Structures are given as C-alpha cells and as structure tokens.
Amino acid sequence: MTPGRCLLSQKQIQARVRQLGRLLTRHYAGERPLFLGIMNGALFFLADLLRAVELDSEITCVRLASYSGAKSTGKLRGLEAMGDSFRDRHVLIVDDIFDTGRTLAGVVRRLRELGAADVKICVLLEKRRRHEIPVKVDWIGFKIPDEFVVGYGLDYHDRYRGLKQIRVLERPAV
Ligand code: IMP
Ligand code: MG
C-alpha cells in the first residue's frame, strides 16, 4: 500500500489551518485554553494550529491508539495515563481525524471525569460516514470521503506521517 491520489494540498491545508486559528482566537479571547493534542496523528496539526492562534494557550499531549494498520481495533489504549492537570480548565482536544468517534468520545468522557470545566474539539478531518459513536465536533478543517488517508501526521503502520499533503492510501498498480 502506498500514498496515491492527493486529496488536500499543502497550500489548502495551510490556508484552512490559518482560518481555524482565527476562529479559535476569537472564541477563546481572554481565556487561557489548554490544547490537548492526541498523538501521534495530531503532531503537525497541533504545531501549525498553535502558531496560527494569538492566545495565551498551554499545550499538553496524550498518546492514544485504536488503529492497527488501516483498521480500527475498537479498543482505545492510553486514557489511564491522562493526569490531573485538567481540573477547571477549558480544554480543546486537537486530533487528526474523526472516524468512528471512539477516540474523541473516550477523551471527552475522561476529561469530564478529571474535572475539566469545558471541553471542545477541533479536528483536521472528518470522514463522511456513519460515525459509530456520535460526537459533537466544534471545529472541522475538511470533510473527506470515507477512504484511508495518510500524510500531515496521519500514518499507515507508522509510515507516511511526514508527507506534506493528505493522500489516499492505494494498492500499487502491478
Ligand atoms: P476513531 O475511529 O474516530 O476513534 O479514530 C481514531 C484514530 O484512528 C484517529 O485519530 C487516527 O489516528 C486513526 N485513523 C482513522 N482514520 C484514519 C485514516 O484514514 N488514516 C490514518 N489514520 C486514521
Ligand atoms: Mg489519532
């Protein structure tokens, strides 16, 4: 499997991240939001978004995993490792993609348990599909077809994260 058709160019991604930065700057004006990046997929999105906002924000990350290759395993690992620095905070979850909804729903539930005052979600991509778990996502970069994509942080068995575009993973022609 290799990266094929380009769905989103570097330029398109950069322009949209700047827009999202402006929206978040307006929304969180006067507050000190805590950006929670879901690693590793949100790596580049989080870094670019932080440079696009003009806010006195803080960042923290959690490493979660539910995928094995191109399939969701249905199990979410890593939530227990989230510490208690979320109490009374306005938290913005930053993730690469809203697919089944399991990751985002799990993180929201955990943040409520840990006493966050407010939880909002910003994802770069949302797949157009029936999400298994409904989640209210507050900011979405792009809606994309229900295909497996790589690049700009998104991986296939940990490969292709460094691609500057978002590409569809394809079977190589023989
Ligand atoms: P969920 O199914 O909504 O819980 O998505 C969980 C995670 O699976 C995402 O944060 C991604 O890391 C990964 N994932 C889902 N769809 C894709 C994809 O098309 N490419 C790469 N990773 C994906
Ligand atoms: Mg992820």
Structure description:
The protein is of the alpha/beta class. The chain contains 3 helices and 10 strands, in the order βαβαββββαββββ. The protein has helices at 10-27, 43-52, 102-113, and strands spanning 2-8, 34-39, 58-63, 65-68, 71-77, 90-98, 118-127, 139-144, 149-150, 166-170. The strands form 3 sheets. A 5-stranded parallel sheet has the order 3-2-6-7-8, sandwiched between helices. The chain has a 3-stranded antiparallel sheet with strand order 1-10-9. A hairpin with a 2-residue loop joins β4 (65-68) and β5. α1 crosses α2 (43-52). The longest helix has 18 residues, at 10-27. The radius of gyration is 16 Å and the shape is globular. The relative contact order is 0.22. Bound molecules: inosinic acid and magnesium ion. Magnesium ion binds at residues 38, 41, 95-96, 103.
